[in-house]
Design a protein that fits this description.
Length: 144
């Protein structure tokens, strides 16, 4: 059974903007996440994957924190949200690989973290020495 389009936006608002869903869910945990962490992947991490599954490994790679606010993510509309600013990953200082997927997760650093959302990066990002991988504000996360 599909969710209603208003509820799609509510779920995205709760996850990406820390906005409560009246009478259903709130952000009142003792220490709620203040950031979500974007990661890049060389293959599909799949629904069962975590933030380390096929994660980028070029030299100097690190996950990027994005605030769980409307300053980090747009207010959901039409069942999707986008980053408010480009998400720039550290420039490669060595290695080469192609990033084909991106993930929104819960852990910074190298921990496993939860796969909240993942999807293809189009066009793929070919990384080599000196390249700064970027996800633009045209990137979307869609609730389905």
């Amino acid at each position: 059974m599909p969710k209603g389009s208003t509820f799609d936006n509510d779920i995205l608002g709760l996850i990406f903007n820390a906005t409560a869903i009246a009478n259903i869910a709130d952000n009142a945990a003792s220490s709620p996440l203040t950031n979500l962490y974007m990661s890049l992947h060389t293959a599909n991490p799949g629904a069962g994957g975590n933030q380390t599954t096929s994660e980028a490994a070029y030299t100097s790679y690190a996950r990027v924190a994005v605030a769980r606010t409307t300053g980090g993510w747009s207010a959901p509309s039409g069942g999707s949200t986008s980053p408010v600013a480009n998400i720039d990953f550290p420039a490669a200082t060595g290695g080469s690989e192609t990033e084909t997927y991106a993930m929104v997760g819960t852990v910074s650093g190298s921990g496993t973290g939860k796969n909240l959302y993942s999807g293809t990066v189009t066009p793929n990002i070919v990384v080599s020495n000196g390249v700064t991988p970027r996800l633009t504000t045209a990137s979307t996360v869609t609730e389905s």
